[in-house]
Amino acid sequence: MELTNIQRKLLKILKESEANPLTVRDIQNLLGLSSPSLVHHHILQLEKKKFISRNPSNPKDYKILQDPDTYLSYVNLYGMATCGPKGTLLSGDPITRIPLSPKFISFNIEDAFMVEAIGDSMEPGIHEGDFLIGKAQPTAENGDIIVCSLNSEIMVKQLLKGVNEIFLVSNNKKYDPIIVGSKSNFVIEGIVKGIICSHK
């Protein structure tokens, strides 16, 4: 069973303090929760999901059943993103869900998605077949590598903002920058936060 971002943080706190258990108030402060009852709720969820076992007569007596450092999060893999002139739309239901170690995800797991790169326009940084870990968000900073939709075509490019224009730039210099016109249907799907390389 999967954990929420708060539950993953809680599990890590419980593991680190297993020898000297913290109070509920301490855990509340570390997690930034508004009340002790929320801590109890998430601890109960960890127990139901078989990540910890507890002694009913002593709340501080618990055992970690699954190590948070080896726990795998599952991320949606969507239709192929293209790094070239052709591609498919990143939308609808995911193709599958990919198990990932939390070390690959430095942000809220609920915002994570994955796409597989096609083409050579983002080489040498991104190669065909690489899996890209994205953080879903509708905006990006100048210079970010983004997954975007331009007139219903999904692509992976570097975002460069001019005074009055937006450019989608390839790493591979044989591809010219794409100018996003004022009438273009341009949507930022998210920013690329990690790459799982498939090439040798």
Describe it for me?
- This protein is α+β, with helices and mostly antiparallel strands and 200 residues long.
- The protein has two domains: 5-64, Winged helix-like DNA-binding domain superfamily/Winged helix DNA-binding domain (Arc Repressor Mutant, subunit A), CATH 1.10.10.10; 73-196, Umud Fragment, subunit A (Ribbon).
- 16% of the residues lie in helices and 34% in strands.
- The protein is built from three helices and twelve strands, in the order αααββββββββββββ.
- The strands form two sheets. Strands 3, 4, 5, 6, 7, 8, 9, 10, 11 and 12 form a ten-stranded mixed β-sheet that branches. A two-stranded antiparallel ribbon has the order 1-2.
- A hairpin with a 4-residue loop joins strand 9 (153-161) and strand 10.
- Helix 1 (5-16) crosses helix 3 and helix 2 (24-31) crosses helix 3 (36-48).
- The longest helix is centred in the N-terminal third of the chain and has 13 residues, at 36-48.
- The radius of gyration is 21 Å and the shape is elongated.
- The two termini are 33 Å apart.
- Mean pLDDT is 86; it is low at 83-88.
